[in-house]
Design brief:
With 115 residues, the chain is α+β, with helices and mostly antiparallel strands. The protein contains two helices and six strands; from the N terminus they run βαββββαβ. Strands 2-3-4-5-1-6 form a six-stranded antiparallel sheet.
Length: 115
């Protein structure tokens, strides 16, 4: 299952802080009953525009985030090899990031036939 969330933060100062992004990636997996297998990795960059990207590896797969503070834009992907409550996960993201103009998409990736 793959959940993709795109939206705009109401408080752009919140997402200018790479520590906030790190803490999100460090705490959020537990909130949606997933298991971290690495510490989060967060990078700031200034290539054509300022941004912060981060990811955390999970036993179930991964969570990644891309933030563009100047546009107040955030994109978050949660990919899991097992089903999870996408509505609950999206609601938590909307609340935690104070998002508006949210677009949510989900995709189911079929498991390969392995014999």
């Amino acid at each position: 299952m793959h959940l993709i969330i795109d939206g705009y933060v109401q408080n752009p100062n919140k997402v200018k802080d790479s520590q906030f992004i790190y803490e999100f990636l460090n705490m959020y997996p537990e909130q949606i009953n997933m298991t971290k297998v690495s510490t989060p990795h967060v990078s700031e960059y200034d290539f054509q525009e300022q941004g912060i990207s981060g990811f955390v590896l999970l036993a179930e797969s991964h969570i990644s985030i891309h933030v563009f503070p100047e546009q107040s834009y955030v994109s978050i992907d949660i990919f899991s090899c097992r089903e999870f409550d996408t509505q609950q996960a999206a609601h938590r993201l909307e609340k935690q990031f104070e998002l508006s103009g949210v677009k949510m998409r989900t995709f189911c990736r079929p498991l390969p036939d392995i014999e």
